[in-house]
Recover the amino acids of this structure.
């Protein structure tokens, strides 16, 4: 069945702000909108550190092998670091230890400084010049823009480049933190697949089973949350659940609430569910899976990311907190027509602080789209996740991840793509007419946009982050600007 196509316009009112995570909009940006109140927060927050990973040795690119694994299968653990494999559970779940409470909020983090790597080699001068030209041509052609930052990673080689404005009077650079948006979803699927590999639950297990012992599950309206929807259906966006993002008034109320927990987002649902099976891009799936991951991981979501991915892989990223992000984080740029202009810095135009803006996004985006990082770190993450030389997940889990894209094409981001477990598969045609596969996930809205793409044929990972939503139609004619850049870089590298 065709995906719901929704025209989303970012209207910024004097008393409210709209921010977004992801959508299937065919004419505008990537996001459903989040409404923000005008009251500012003065609280402070700190965020997490991570070391840079050691160099990944290069080898001949190997295209992933697609294998069909039943939804009921539990993936065997192949990662050396997993010491204990729990038995497969289908109908009986292990409750969290009474001594380790199920988290209800994101833990406070420690200060992070985003510093570029120096241990990787370079691409050839001609390639790097061509990469730069691709970025400058495409970004320069955009009518409304602020800054853009790009990274290209090939396992042993790294190229980064940034141009434009991070804030009023401040240029962006390659180490400027930027909100990642829906590209954050790739961490959720990786975490869930790792937990499945450890035997905590299966793709076929239902919400009513995996969250039965969660202290917040009983608060959910069972006419809104289908207890029979499975983990696999939530991962593939085929659950039939409604989107909590549709409740603009309710979200605004969460921002001004004295306390908040992720389950509060589920209680924003206003519409009942439909039968599973149809693809529909709905962030409710992410909140439920985030609660599942926290329950079986016995920790808050960001701490699980740190334990499973960030620290072992040497990747730097932080999770939008209740209060703030680093001061040098790129500010959002978008429509400011309600403030007397047409396009500009949302924070300069708005009657509230960036701390208040990030607090609201931290609450509403959470598991869906709550990471802040740099293109270098996201490109390296994509390589560790998608390349067969990567170690973010086991080879068996990676096969399941790739195979999840084997279904019918759906309308995603304005083009027909295969969508799996928070992984989109699309084809790019190079200048010599060769067609290559690209896996990853876009994100955007609320003054930001992102794209992660990895090609197994080239064994190359590309990350693009921008502090504006950019126009839908790219200069190259066939794709959005971010995809035009990715397509151009893939083409240069293939020559």
């Amino acid at each position: 069945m065709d995906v719901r196509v929704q025209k989303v316009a970012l209207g910024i009112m004097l008393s409210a702000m709209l921010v977004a995570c992801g959508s299937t909009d065919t004419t505008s940006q990537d996001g459903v909108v989040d409404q923000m109140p005008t009251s500012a927060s003065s609280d402070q927050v700190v965020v997490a550190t991570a070391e840079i990973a050691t160099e990944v040795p290069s080898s001949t690119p190997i295209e992933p092998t697609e294998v069909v694994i039943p939804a009921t299968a539990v993936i065997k653990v192949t990662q050396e670091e997993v010491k204990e494999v729990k038995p497969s559970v289908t109908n009986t779940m292990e409750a969290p230890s009474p001594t380790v409470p199920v988290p209800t909020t994101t833990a406070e983090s420690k200060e992070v400084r985003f510093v570029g790597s120096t241990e990787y080699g370079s691409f050839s001068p001609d390639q790097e010049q061509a990469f730069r030209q691709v970025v400058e041509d495409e970004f320069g052609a955009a009518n409304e823009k602020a800054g853009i930052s790009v990274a290209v990673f090939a396992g042993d080689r790294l190229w980064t480049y940034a141009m434009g404005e991070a804030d009023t009077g401040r240029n962006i650079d390659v180490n400027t933190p930027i909100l990642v948006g829906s590209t954050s979803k790739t961490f959720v699927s990786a975490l869930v697949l790792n937990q499945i590999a450890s035997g905590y639950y299966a793709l076929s297990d239902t919400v009513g089973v995996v969250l039965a012992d969660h202290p917040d599950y009983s608060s959910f309206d069972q006419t809104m949350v289908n207890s029979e929807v499975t983990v696999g259906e939530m991962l593939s966006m085929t659950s039939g659940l409604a989107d909590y993002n549709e409740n603009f008034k309710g979200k605004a109320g969460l921002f001004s609430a004295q306390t908040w927990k992720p389950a509060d987002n589920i209680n924003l649902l206003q519409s009942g569910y439909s039968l599973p099976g149809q693809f529909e891009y709905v962030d409710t799936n992410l909140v439920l899976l985030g609660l599942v991951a926290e329950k079986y991981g016995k920790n808050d979501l960001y701490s699980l990311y740190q334990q499973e991915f960030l620290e072992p892989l040497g990747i730097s990223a932080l999770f939008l907190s209740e209060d703030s992000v680093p001061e040098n984080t790129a500010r959002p740029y978008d429509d400011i027509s309600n403030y007397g202009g047409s396009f500009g810095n949302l924070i300069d135009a708005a009657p509230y602080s960036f701390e208040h803006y990030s607090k609201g996004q931290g609450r509403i985006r959470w598991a869906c789209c709550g990471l802040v990082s740099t293109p270098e770190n996201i490109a390296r993450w994509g390589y560790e996740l998608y390349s067969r030389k990567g170690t973010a997940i086991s080879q068996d889990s990676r096969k399941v991840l790739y195979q999840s894209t084997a279904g019918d094409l759906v309308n995603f981001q304005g083009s027909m793509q295969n969508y799996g477990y928070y992984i989109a598969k699309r084809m790019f045609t190079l200048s010599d007419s060769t067609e290559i596969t690209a896996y990853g996930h876009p994100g955007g809205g609320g003054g930001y946009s992102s794209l992660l793409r990895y090609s197994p044929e080239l064994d190359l990972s590309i990350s693009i982050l921008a502090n504006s939503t950019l126009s839908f139609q790219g200069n190259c004619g066939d794709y959005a600007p971010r995809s035009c850049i990715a397509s151009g870089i893939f083409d240069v590298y293939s020559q």
